[in-house]
Amino acid sequence: MAQPMVNSCCRCFSLRSGSIASGILGIILSIISIILIFTVRIDFKTILMDWLPQNVVKIIYALNLVMTILISLLMIMGVVKKNHYFMMPWVVLGLMLAIGLLISVIYNAVVYYIDGFVLGGTLWLVVGLLTVVIYVYMWIVVYSFFVTVKNENDRGRYSKQPYRR
What's the short name of a Pfam family annotated to this entry (predicted)? Predict the structure, then answer.
């Protein structure tokens, strides 16, 4: 039986509240990102497929964000209903996104440094790494609630704690 990594969110909120807040924040940021993708003139680039047309890249980003919204809604529903199966896609995706975010931050900072934009690279690195730390902490909060709910469901919500010697 796995143990939660933390017992509260920010030392003053429950894991349940922190998990719901993570889901809502993910939805809000995804909606804002979708709006920005289609309203702001930015050249989006991909690391591996830099030959794709801008419209295709925008659509790929938007579809990813729509999936994030759906998975966040599913996670919130899992938190409310105490169903760890509904939370699992968010937990798995969240871990993959944290790794991808870290790689993206480092890659973009290096590109800024190579292009001679030391201030831009440093800002990208500092703000990006701070974002990664906050994101990973919120993932830990959701994962901890996921483990708590899974443990409750595995032993039965109203049964006694397992006997230990």
Answer: DUF4728
Instruction: Give the separation between CA 87 and CA 152, rounded to whole angstroms.
Output: 14
The pair of three-digit structure tokens given for residue 69, joined into one six-digit string: 């919204």
Number of domains present in the structure of the chain? 1
Closest-CA residue to 153 (of 93, 90, 81)? 81
User: Residue 156: which region, alpha, beta or left (left: phi > 0; alpha: psi -120 to 50)?
Assistant: left
- Measured CA to CA, the distance from residue 70 to residue 74 in angstroms comes to 6
**What's the rounded mean pLDDT across residues 27-33?**
95
Q: Within a domain: residue 24?
A: yes
Q: What is the pTM assigned to this prediction?
A: 0.84
In angstroms, rounded to a whole number, what is the distance separating the alpha carbons of residues 139 and 42? 29
